[in-house]
Specification:
This protein is α/β, with parallel strands linked by helices and 331 residues long. It contains eleven helices and eleven strands.
Amino acid sequence: MKFLNVKNAAFCASIITATAFTGLSNLSAEIRWDMPLPYGDGTHQTQVARSFAEEVNKNAQGKLTIKVHSGGSLIKHPEIHRAVKSRQVQLGEVFIGRLGNNDPIFKLDNIPFLATDFDSAEKLYQASKGEITKALAKDHLTLLYTSPWPAQDLYSNKPISSLADLKGLKMRSYSPTTSRLADLMGTTPVNIPFSDVAQAFTTNAIDAMVTSPSTGVNAQSWDYISHFSTIHAWIPKNMLFVNTKIFNRLDKDLQQVILTAAKNAEQKGWALGRKLAVEHTDMLRDKGMIVSAPTEQLQSELQAIGQTMIAEWLEEAGASGQSVLDAYQAQ
């Protein structure tokens, strides 16, 4: 039987050590995250989310790769929150108002006529961010960034001068708060996802909707809707969050890469929201839709609905909700 001399033994040991190190290095380079998004590639929300993923992938130095799954291709919108919570996927994006049944703070994002311009919407976000973070933490989730839509306006196939003109119509809803708004407007709420808006109008499943000019542009609403009233009801947001346990497993450098990319994405999202509010309203007009400001009567009636919904929200949200509103109004 032959034995290795000390020199050869040391050489073999070094090979084994190097191979093991390389294996561990390759293992660390194989961290892959899936990021489901609810909206298609044409929306600015998905464009912002893609820019976030691209920045992370670029600066993670091969340690982490985020794969984007847009348009509900991996997980449908209603299931994204649960999928991240259960660690089926690592992170995901949702429309904040969709989570209104989970916690009242998420309903605040859809309360009409509370924050109707971008400056006010940013103040409301800063006032409510702490409570949003707490609500997500209950589900072991960490907020990464928010990105706003342009203000929500009124689409219809006839002129709307007052709430009486809406009575009996079927109104698209997409969150608990928009369903309540439809009720108070005298319409019937119908839950229709963004992807089905065009078909819903052409088949008379809905007669009107309150949504952003960006949604109207992406759905080519001029093909089946005639009127657009700039009621500027509220400015809702999407948010991207990550499973906290998965995030905490990353080394500090990778965590910082993600947080920096999230900060940049949030800045980009808010800037884009402001820009597209003007551009997409102009596009609806250019495509032949009748764009008009609301009448004083309609505006007054909608403001009264807003006050009702704020009071209802405060009753549900309690002291923490009052603290958020106080902080907002103090800015």
